[in-house]
């Protein structure tokens, strides 16, 4: 540092600002941030008063503002333009923070689902559970073929993407009470994605609170009939009736395991005591 004039050489100022010397030289060359002065040998020197300026410019660059936009602002800068520019960038940052919060929550949900599956392991015993309400983005349709399922899955995913509804949960399906009783387990009535209760949408359907007979099916989706048969037998033998549509949702899929034989699907059937 030049003690008589309180100036920093390029390397000293770069170290102070935690940036590279080359960055300062580049910014000078393109006219974005110039040194306080250059000596007779063309060496650059910076004043301490420039510290806040370069830190702000680096922050704007780091949040995505282009160097061209920064230079354009500097060419026409006024106090009001500074407020307008910083306000605009602040709004962008707030939006990005919200997006990152959403991503963080979705990843946390996915971790919780996987941990639940790990805890279950190979346990496919039937159990009865009192379940709370859950929010679902649900798309009902008449299933006549696998093409219908694929088309409606695409429509549901498209809707969620367009409305920025992300949850980290896998696609789920329902089977109507009628189809369960008649053992048409592959006749899907709707597809859904479970979402956090804070999500607002006209497509929100509430999975009812109540008593459910549950099983964790291990294996491909095509073999879920085995678990449905076990559930129906259990429900009948223990004095219950099916009281609504079933809900299936995936804990382990191709993202988690290599083989369809290792898929893990939770099946819930609402029940009530037989009269």
UniProtKB/TrEMBL annotation:
HTH merR-type domain residues: 7-76
Keywords: Coiled coil, DNA-binding
Single GO term (MF): DNA-binding transcription factor activity
Any Pfam family matching the protein: GyrI-like
Coiled coil: 83-110
Domain of life from the UniProt record: Bacteria
SUPFAM superfamilies attached to this UniProt entry: Probable bacterial effector-binding domain, Putative DNA-binding domain
Keyword Ribosomal protein: no
SMART domains in the record: AraC_E_bind, HTH_MERR
PANTHER family per record: MULTIDRUG-EFFLUX TRANSPORTER 2 REGULATOR, REDOX-CYCLING DRUG-SENSING TRANSCRIPTIONAL ACTIVATOR SOXR
Protein name: Effector-binding domain-containing protein
Organism: Clostridium cavendishii DSM 21758
């Amino acid at each position: 540092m030049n003690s008589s004039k309180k100036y920093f050489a390029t390397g000293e100022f770069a170290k102070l600002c935690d940036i590279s010397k080359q960055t300062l030289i580049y910014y000078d060359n393109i006219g974005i941030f110039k040194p306080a002065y250059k000596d007779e040998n063309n060496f650059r020197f910076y004043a301490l008063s420039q510290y806040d300026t370069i830190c702000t410019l680096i922050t704007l660059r780091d949040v995505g503002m282009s160097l061209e936009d920064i230079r354009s602002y500097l060419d026409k800068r006024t106090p009001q333009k500074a407020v307008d520019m910083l306000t605009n960038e602040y709004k962008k940052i707030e939006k990005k923070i919200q997006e990152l919060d959403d991503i963080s929550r979705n990843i946390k949900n996915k971790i919780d689902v996987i941990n639940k599956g790990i805890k279950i392991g190979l346990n496919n015993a039937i159990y009865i559970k009192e379940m709370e309400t859950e929010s679902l983005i649900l798309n009902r349709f008449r299933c006549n073929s696998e093409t219908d399922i694929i088309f409606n899955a695409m429509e549901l995913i498209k809707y969620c993407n367009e409305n920025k509804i992300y949850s980290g949960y896998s696609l789920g399906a329902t089977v109507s009470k009628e189809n369960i009783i008649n053992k048409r387990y592959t006749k899907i009535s709707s597809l859904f994605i479970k979402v956090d209760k804070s999500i607002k949408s006209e497509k929100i359907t509430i999975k009812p609170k109540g008593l459910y007979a549950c099983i964790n099916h291990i294996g491909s989706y095509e073999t879920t009939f085995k678990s449905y048969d076990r559930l129906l037998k259990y429900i009948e033998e223990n004095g219950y009736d099916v009281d609504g549509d079933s809900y299936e949702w995936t804990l382990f899929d191709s993202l988690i395991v290599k083989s369809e034989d290792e898929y893990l699907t939770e099946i819930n059937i609402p029940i009530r005591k037989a009269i």
